[in-house]
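Supplementary notes (optional reading)

For those who missed the lab, this is the record we used. Protein: PTS maltose transporter subunit IIBC. Length: 480 residues.
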Amino acid sequence: MAKFVNEAKELLEYAGGKENIASVNHCATRMRFVLNDVNNADIEKIKAMKIVKGTFVQAGQFQVIVGNEVSIFYNDFAEAAGIDGVSKEQTKVVTKDNRNFIQRLLANLAEIFAPLIPAIIVGGLILGFRNIIGDIKLIEGGTKTLTEVLQFWSGVYSLLWLIGESIFFFLPVGITWSISKKMGTTQILGIILGITLVSPQLLNAYAFAGTPVDKISVWNFGFAKVQMIGYQAQVIPSILAGFFLAILEKNVRKIVPEYISMIVVPLLSLVPAVLIAHAILGPIGWVIGKGISTVIYSGLTSSFGWLFAALFGFAYAPLVITGLHHMTNVIDLELMARLGGTNLWPMISLSNIAQGSAVVAMIFINRRNEQEKQVSIQAAISCYLGVIEPAMFGINLKYIYPFIAAVTGSAIAAVISINSGVMANSIGVGGLPGILSIKPQFMLAYAFAVLVAIVVPFVLTTILSKANLQLIKSYKKAKA
């Protein structure tokens, strides 16, 4: 029997029935509806459902927060509603007129990186674990690392690098593949384009800065020369190249007769795309990426870095509501490529922890309310493990004051992180396990920032709860 069949039927009824649903799909934690008429949906009853952690409208979509089991719930809902094959592409067609340019840009970025995030997170954890066993001196009175003492860990250290290198050095392959998949073009061509950006025949991107210009190999076409430079771990060049190939292939396919398209379209798409990628788009993307990472890093490490950190720490959770937080994936990856780490991601992880800590305070405050505790405990655990939506939408935004306490604690923790120079190897699990992605020399400072992100929201939520209760009593007394 389906796990959520009853809840699915309830949601279908409260959403206005099948005839009111133009489109529906889901992401990691949310059901995304496009309703023919939002007024036909009983939003208050939807919010009151036990499985629902919250609702909101974004870019023309009515979104229902379900949590980690959303994929199971979606399948049960689709069966209960008799809806088959409702895809994200269909939803985008329905909602495209409701989205402005920035919303469409961010949606595209989110869709490009969504399939890659699990690999990037695994890569961050692997690099962090390698640092623990290979760089932190834990053995023989703090004089040797595990890899120096035990051959087993030395082998593990070497093996893990194979995975870490594959994820980050060859990231352009994943990006160009993901773009081709999103654009509905030939995915193998996207993969091949990505491989040409990281081919061993090219000068490694990490060696480019220290190589004299006259030592860089070129493709000599007689009238022009193109440097043979690789784009390992480079994000912006890969995005530009991937979209160029996809757009070119779509246009070529329009003019090539169907009976020769299998031969002609790949040839006329891939060859020009590879040439343009290396001659024009790669160098342009390199400059753009370097500019972005330089500005962000300079801002965070300047004398006003604390102010930037405070603003970012305070604003990140609200950005999640708007979808603007997806832009941070690009920035983090650019910082990693240029600097070998990112000081932005630790603040994101701290923001998640702060939201979870505010929920823990609500658990303490409502400790005699069993129904509230059940919802809050699940939300807090998810948040501490990096899934923020159930906690934020289901609890903190519902009561407002826990959200205020959380973003305040996040801002303070972010300032501590930046002032301590904390750097992460890469994006990791955005919660308590995130410490594994922090560079070893900054783990202690980051642990202190985590402590602040736990304590401050908890204390503030408790204080604000009492103040809120007093205001309610005063209001009721005045009304009486």
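If you only remember one thing from this example: The CA atoms of residues 29 and 67 lie 4 Å apart.
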